[in-house]
Amino acid sequence: MRIYPAFFRVVFSGMDPEKAHQIGFRLIRMAESTGASAVLRRITRPHPSLRRTVMGIDFPSPFGLAAGFDKEGHGVAALADLGFGHIEVGTITGQAQPGNPKPRLFRLVEDRAVINRMGFNNDGAVAVAPRIRQVLPTLARRFGSTRPVVGINIGKTKLVELDDAVEDYLDSTRALAANADYLVVNVSSPNTPGLRLLQGIETLRPLLAAVGREADATAGRHVPLLVKIAPDLADADVDDVAALVLELGLDGVIATNTTIARSGLVTVPDRIREYGAGGLSGAPLKSRSLEVLRRLRSVLPASTTVISVGGVESADDVLERLTAGADLVQGYTAFLYEGPFWAWRINRGLRRALSGR
Fold it and tell me: How many CB atoms lie within 10 A of CB 61?
């Protein structure tokens, strides 16, 4: 019998979603700081059979936590203890910013979804960098050579004009690249005005090229670089991004971010209108995210990494993405509904499914 769904209904369902997230995250971090999560680590650690090498990096499991949960690198070690094969921190911007006015996070429980317009609230790249640098030795000490991987997701500071966006991304790159296992350029959030305009090929090309050069120069090694795209791109635009990834020799694509679409939802339309603008995540993205994955995989070689995210809830979902050609799979929204043993259950299901092949 699973306890967390009942706990969610009683404790969190009536609470402001952002406050609930903060309390839940604080409890996870408290478990790690008190040493209680050391017991969890022995239970939740992915089985060695789930290991895979992607972008030259050893991942303990193909399933990881998408950007958005830990925006500032406060809880990487605590989240690693829950069984995630990788944790993507961010989105982090060149300058600290408070994000959009509250309320800015809304649950659609009937749809197992969330609408957010957080607006990249974070402490800024310079403040986050020491947290990442300090946590890496901790992970190596606790997990050994196949530790959970730490990705870093960077985006544009809201107050920075689009014409100055490249330099803003480079500020984040200089601060963070040296301690990133991989780096993600986020040009697909709907919550920063104008950001998605950077997905246009002529603006995206110089941005990705500059970040790639700066990341490698800063780190003194090759830092795998990926671009995160929106599910709302037309198929032809997805193809154009794939062609650009090949042209620039990028390591991969993360598909997909949240959507501005509101079709096919069970939640009553009046409530959706009341919540207003923002990116929709969760189960309703499953179909489109899978479509984009299959399209990318059909035009990209096996050497180019595709990380699939959007609507992932179960081991069956992860297995479906892997079968469709994803190298790695991420989730986030279902974590809010499934609780702290979510990654462990997915890894357990994956092990059973893959061992039965």
Answer: 27
Residue owning tokens 């992970």: 139
In single-letter form, the type of residue at position 11 comes to V
- pLDDT, averaged per 10 consecutive residues of the chain (357 residues), comes to 60 78 88 77 91 97 97 95 96 96 94 94 97 96 93 95 92 98 87 64 89 98 96 90 93 95 93 94 96 97 97 97 98 92 95 81
DSSP letters of 26-44? HHHHHHHHTTTHHHHHHHH
Q: Quote the strand ranges of the chain, DSSP E.
A: 52-54, 57-59, 63-65, 86-93, 105-108, 113-116, 149-155, 182-186, 225-229, 252-255, 279-282, 305-309, 328-331
Q: Which residues does the annotation mark as catalytic?
A: 189
Contact 17, 105 (CB under 8 A): yes
Q: Where are the alpha helices (DSSP H) in 124-234?
A: 125-143, 165-176, 201-219
Strands 279-282 and 113-116: antiparallel
CA neighbor of 216 nearest in space, from 168, 251, 165: 251
